[in-house]
Known about the structure:
seven-stranded mixed beta sheet; elongated; metal-binding; transferase; CCA tRNA nucleotidyltransferase 1, mitochondrial; tRNA binding
Amino acid sequence: xxxxxxxxxxxELRIAGGAVRDLLSGMTPQDIDFATTATPxxxxxxxxxxxxxxxxxxxxKHGTITARLHEQNFEITTLRIDVVTDxxxxxxxxxxxxxxxxxxxxxxxxxxxLGLDGMLYDFFNGYEDLKNKKIRFVGKAxxxxxEDYLRILRYFRFYGRIAEKPGDHEPSTxxxxxxxxxxxxxxxxxxxxxxxxxxxxxNHVNHLVRLMYELDIAQYIGLPLEGNxxxxxRVTKNIQNLCPKPMTVLVSLFKVKDDVTNLxxxxxxxxxxxxxxxxxxxxxHELIKAMxxxxxxxxxxxxxxxxxxxxxxxxxxxxxxQGEEHLLREMQxxxxxxxxxxxxxxxxxxxxxxKEIGTALQQLRDEWKKSGYHMDKEELxxxxxxx
Length: 387
C-alpha cells in the first residue's frame, strides 16, 4: 500500500482537510486527500520506482500529485506556505512544517490532519469547533479572506452544512466579510456559482442569503439589488425535503426575467439552469393547481401542449417551488399519454386531403384533451363522425 512507500523513506503522510472533518463527524468522505513532507519530485520518484501510475494533472506546481491505485485516485499534496496571494490564486513554497500548512487553510474545521495511526493534529481548535458546530476562519478572518475572496462563500457553505442554528456568527467575522465583500467582484462567475449552488441546497439558506444582502455581497455575485426576501422565506418553507434544483430556490429572489439574464451574465450558468429560471419566473404564479377533483390538470395540459423535451422536469420544479408535495409525487408517477389517432386512421375513414386531416386531428386532439386524455381511438373516431 502506498503509505508504506512513504514510511520507508521517512516521509510523513497524513489525511488532510475536508476528509478529516468528515471522518470526525462520522461521515464517509467523498474523497480522501493526503498531505506529506515529501516534495512533488520525491513523490514522483517514489511512485515511479514502485510502479504506481500517476495521473498527469496541472496540480504539480501547487505541489499536488495524483496517484491511481485500486481504481481510485489519491491526491497527495506537499506541505506548503502561500507566499504571494492576489485574492484569487497563490504562489506557493514547500515546507515540512505541518502547522504552517494548517495556517494557510480557510476554516478551522478544514485545517486538521489525521495520522494513519489515528493521531489527530489540530493546531487551531478545529475539533472543538466541529463538536460545537462553530464555523471560524483560521487566524484573522480578514487575512484569510484577502488570500482568496471566494472564502467568503465557503464560510457560508460550511455554515449551512455544520452550524446548528441561524445567527451563530462571530461579529468580527461578519465585519471582516462586509469589509471585503467587494473582493468577490474579481472572482470568476464559474467559481462563485459552484459555491452558491451548494449554499442553496444546504441548511439555513434564507438566513445565509439574507446575510448576503446585509453584508453587501449580493451585488457582486449577480443577485438582484432588491431581492424578494419575503418570497425566499415562503419558498424555503415550501421546498423542505423536496430536493429542489439550486435554481428553483434562487428564483424566489427574482422579480422579473432580467434578473435571470443578469445572473447568467455574471455567473455563466448552464443553458438548462437559465431556461429553468426563466420558466419559473414566467409561470410560478399563473400555472397553479385546479380546484375540484383534478388538481393536476393545468400542469398536465401544459405538458401536453408543450413542444419542448424537458417540460416535465420543469413542471416538477414548479411544483416543488409551490410546495405541492402530493401533486409532485403524483406528477412523478404520471406518464405522458400518447394520442391514439393518426392520419392513417383518418385516411381509412375516407378523409383524403392533407389539410382536412390536419384540421380533423386538431379537433380530435381538443376533444381528447377535454376528456382528460381518457378517450380511446374508437370513441375519438365515432366523435369524428359527429363533427
